[in-house]
Amino acid sequence: MSTKPSKELETFDNPRPERDYTIRITMPEFTCLCPKTGQPDFATIDLEYIADKQCVELKSLKMYIWSFRDEGAFHEDVTNQILSDLVAATQPRFMRITAEFNVRGGVYTSVVAEHRADNWVAPEPVHLP
């Protein structure tokens, strides 16, 4: 296999840093291990962010997400770890991670974690008639 999982997140320069625009990425194949049982947990991870100077490069993001496959992690911790790592790599104006974990024992888990830069003010939403 020519690729392998990696914790390294690569970035590239935001092509339009003068503008707030939303980047949305869906990762429906996230897996990690339950730290109690060792059984696999499956989730869809949704990433939404407003870049400042850097954007996350997609291949490195795929390899990063893959790196959790054999790690034990509580849903709350892994969601916040992904947010922390992506914020450290990209320094976004705003970032939100939503992790929707598949059912386990009749229970669904959804974890949402957010980051907002200190000097960033969210634009007012536009409501069209």
Write the layout of secondary structure elements.
Layout: E1 11-13, E2 22-33, E3 40-50, E4 54-56, H1 58-66, H2 75-90, E5 94-104, E6 107-116
Antiparallel strand pairs: 1-4, 2-3, 3-5, 5-6
Describe this structure in words.
- It is a single chain.
- With 129 residues, this protein is an alpha+beta fold.
- Helices cover 19% and strands 39% of the residues.
- It is built from two helices and six strands.
- The protein has helices at residues 58-66, 75-90; strands at 11-13, 22-33, 40-50, 54-56, 94-104, 107-116.
- A four-stranded antiparallel β-sheet has the order 2-3-5-6, covered by helices on one side. A two-stranded antiparallel ribbon has the order 1-4.
- A hairpin with a 2-residue loop joins strand 5 and strand 6.
- The longest helix is centred in the middle third of the chain and has 16 residues, at 75-90.
- The protein is globular.
- The mean pLDDT is 95.
Which keywords apply here?
two-stranded antiparallel ribbon, single chain, globular, 6 strands, alpha+beta, 2 helices, 4-stranded antiparallel beta sheet, 129 residues
